[in-house]
Amino acid sequence: MKTNQQFIATCPLYCEDLLKTEIEGFGGKNINTHHGAVHFEGNLLTAYGTCLWSRIANTVLYPLAGFDAASRDELYEKLLNIPFFEHFSVEKTFAIRSHVSDTFFSNPNIANLVVKDAIADSFRNRMNKRPSVDPTRPDIRLTFYMKSEKATISLELSSESMYRRAYRTQGVEAPLKENVAAAVLLRAEWEQISRHQGVLVDLMCGSGTFAIEALFIAADIAPGLLRKSARMKNWNGHDTELWDSLVKEAEQRREAGLSKKLSKIIAFDNDPEAVDAAYQNTLAAKVEKYIQIVPKDFRDAIAPKSEAKPKGLVVANPPYGERLGDKSTVGYIYQDIGRTLFDKYQNYNAAILTGDKELARKVGLRANRLNTLYNGNIRCTLAHFNIREENEFRMSGKNIQ
Ligand SMILES: C[S@@+](CC[C@H](N)C(=O)[O-])C[C@H]1O[C@@H](n2cnc3c(N)ncnc32)[C@H](O)[C@@H]1O
Asked: Are strands 59-68 and 150-156 parallel, antiparallel or unpaired?
C-alpha cells in the first residue's frame, strides 16, 4: 500500500473535530472534516491506529474507487471494472451498506442490490465463481456512498460499529453509545482533569458507560482492545504483523496505565438493575477493580474528597422525558441536579447531557459552554458548568440562551 493512501473515518454528528484531533495523533495528514466523516491521508499504521484507538469513530473505510455515474447501467458497468478480486477472495462472504441521496435510487436497498450484483459479476467474469452474500455476519463489508452522480465504494477496515467496545453485556433503557459518552468526556476535558487525579462522578450511571470510558481514557486503554473480530483480517491487503504489533503495544499500554495511580471513578444509580448492569459491564471490560458502582440516589450520596483543581468532573445523562419518564415529571430531576451540584460539588466541573435545552435550563446554574451532540437520533445539548460559589443556584435558571 502507498504511504499516502486516502481513508475515511465516520463518526457521530458534531464529533468531527474530536475525531480529526485523534487522527492527527495517529499520523494522519491532509485531514478534512465533513458531515459525520473525516477524510485523511496516511499509511496502514494510521488506519489501523484509528481502528484500534479511536474513541470517537464509527467505522474506518478504505476507498477502492470514486467515480461519476448518471444511470444505474453506468454505475453497474463502472463497478464491474473495479478489481474487487484483488481485495478479497471469492471464498469470503460479503455485504453492502449503501447511503444514497439525490440519486436515481429511491432507497438504499435497491442500491445494495445493484452494487452486490456488480461485485459478484466482477468475480464471475474473472474466475467463473461468485462470492456469497451474508447480510448479517459478512467476512467483508463494503460501504457504497452516492450523492447526486458522485459514487464511492469503500472497504470497511474496522469491525462492525466501533462504538461497540464489546463490554456492554448488560443494557439498561436508553444507554448512551460508547463513542458519544467518550465525546462528552473529551469535551469536558476529562483527559486533563484525570491527569491531575481529579475524581469522576456519574450521578446516574445506567449501564456504566461514562465510568468505563472515563477509565479507558485515564488508564490509556485502547477502546478496540476487547473486540475479538477485526474485519480487515479478511482483506487481502491486511498486514497481520503490523496489526498484531499494535494490539500487543495496546496491551502493554493498558497494563502500564492500570498500574499507575488513577483517578477515583464513582458511579451512582438508584435502580438496582442498572447497578447490576453497570457492574457486569465493568467485569466484561475487566476494570471492575477501578470503578466504584454505588446503589444510591445521587441526592443522598456524599461527594468524594479530592485535592485536585478542579476537584473532578461530575457527569450525568439524566432521563430526557422522551424515552424514559415524561418531560413534565423529569424537570425536577434537573433542578435537584443543580441543587446537588451547588451544595455538594463546589470546585468540581460538571457536564450534563440532555435531549432538551429547556431541561438543561432547569439545572439553574450558569453554563459556561454548550455543545450539540446526537444520542441516537435525539439532538442533545451538553451543558458544561464550573461549580463555584459565584455561580449561584437559581430555581428557574434562565442562563442557557
Ligand atoms: C438515561 S439513563 C443513563 C444511561 C447511561 N448514561 C448509560 O449509558 O447507560 C438514566 C439513569 O438515571 C437513573 N436515575 C434516575 N433517577 C435517579 C436518581 N435520583 N439517582 C440516581 N440515579 C437515577 C436511572 O435509573 C437510569 O439508569
From this structure: antiparallel
**Domain extent listing, the chain:** 5-156, 178-224+242-386
Give the pLDDT confidence score for residue 1 in this predicted structure.
59
Give the side-chain half-sphere CA count within 13 A for 174.
17
CA separation for the pair 6, 230 (Å, rounded): 20
Q: What is the pLDDT of residue 401?
A: 46
Residue type, 134: D
Distance between CA atoms of 38 and 113, rounded to whole angstroms? 27
Beta partners for residue 7, in sequence order = 40
User: Residue type at 308?
Assistant: A
> Same CATH topology for 5-156 and 178-224+242-386?
no
CATH T-level assignment (fold) for domain 5-156: VC0802-like (3.30.2130)
- Residue reference for cell 467505522: 59
Q: What are residue 250's DSSP bridge partners?
A: none
Measured in angstroms, how far is the CA atom of residue 294 from the centroid of ligand 1?
Answer: 12
Other C-beta atoms lying within 10 Å of the C-beta of residue 263: 23
Using CA atoms, how far apart are residues 321 and 82, in angstroms rounded to an integer? 49
* Chain segment 129-161, per-residue pLDDT in tens: 999 999 999 999 999 999 999 999 999 999 878
User: Domain 178-224+242-386 carries which CATH code?
Assistant: 3.40.50.150
Residue appearing with cell numbers 491527569 = 195
Instruction: Return the residue whose CA atom lies nearest to atom 13 of ligand 1.
Output: 204
Percent helix, strand and coil across the chain, each to the nearest 5: 35, 25, 40
Ligand 1 pocket (Cβ < 6 Å) reads 172, 174-176, 204, 206-207, 209-210, 268-271, 274, 297-299, 317-319, 324, 333
| Phi, psi of 378, deg, nearest 5 | -95, 125
Task: Give the position of cell 478479497.
Answer: 88
Find residue 33's DSSP bridge partners.
38
Nine cell digits for residue 68: 461519476
Tell how far the Cα of 348 is from the centroid of ligand 1, in angstroms: 20
Mutate to test the pocket of ligand 1, among 176, 180, 203, 204 (most ligand atoms within 8 A of CB): 204
345-364: per-residue pLDDT in tens? 999 999 999 998 889 999 99
Predicted confidence at residue 393, as pLDDT, reads 66
